[in-house]
Design goal:
alpha/beta; Glucose Oxidase, domain 1
Length: 234
């Protein structure tokens, strides 16, 4: 059995987690979500000078920062995140590095296929679009590039276990002109049994097309998702 220390020493560790902080971007910027999704709030509740120890209070939603999301996020009969095994959080991963995408760009199936390595059933698939460079900048949520429906179906057809993207939204109301085809992209992904890891950062630091993903969420009972610490091992 390989020594765990040697296992990690022989690999480059890349942190693909966005940092939680006050004044962080949030889905409260979406129309109608202003009073639904709370902003991240971090405050001091004790100091060494006054209480003899330092402690903080952290207010987050399940979709704060970089998070892992399961089917109950949008499916009435979908699984909560705690129903998924950790085996679905530690996976062989493939990486698609797309050219930098412009605000509100629609990512096509042809573009994905052009830059994709071989993807096997059960893999995690990470997609970099360069949008993570907009982290916490104005428009990070509202101007996010999105996936075309056929592009997401191409991903689902690969039978992946987890999809990780540097996008805040894989769909948006303006994504398609046909009213009948708007929305439901998240439902299709979760109905396949896959988890969603978003938005990841630092994807451009990944130099290889495959590695190992570790995306370990907070251990919270009865929620659709939770903030996560995600790393990629080359």
């Amino acid at each position: 059995m390989e020594n765990p220390i040697s296992f990690f020493k022989n690999r480059k560790i890349i942190d693909i987690t966005g940092e939680l902080e006050n004044n962080l971007w949030g889905y409260y910027s979406l129309p109608g979500m202003e009073k639904v999704v709370p902003p991240v709030e971090i405050s001091t509740v004790a100091t060494v000078e006054n209480q003899g120890f330092f402690a903080s209070k952290i207010l987050v939603s399940t979709i704060s920062g970089t998070y892992l999301e399961a089917g109950s996020h949008v499916l009435t009969k979908g699984n909560n995140l705690d129903r998924h095994s950790l085996n679905q959080c530690i996976l062989p991963a493939k990486v698609i590095q797309l050219p930098n995408q412009k605000p509100k760009a629609l990512i096509s199936v042809d573009l994905l296929a052009q830059f994709a390595p071989e993807i096997n059933p059960g893999d995690a698939l990470l997609i970099g679009t360069g949008w993570d460079h907009q982290w916490n900048k104005p428009g990070f949520v509202l101007d996010s590039p999105n996936l075309e429906r056929k592009a997401l179906q191409w991903i689902i057809d690969k039978k992946i276990a987890l999809l990780g993207v540097d996008l805040t939204c894989i769909e948006a109301s303006w994504s398609e002109d046909d009213e009948e085809t708007k929305g439901s992209l998240l439902s299709s992904l979760f109905e396949s049994g896959a988890l969603l890891l978003a938005p990841i950062v630092n994807v451009r630091s990944i130099s290889q097309k495959e590695g190992i993903l570790l995306a370990l969420p907070m251990k919270v009972k009865g929620t659709s998702g939770a903030p996560v610490r995600a790393i990629f091992l080359e």
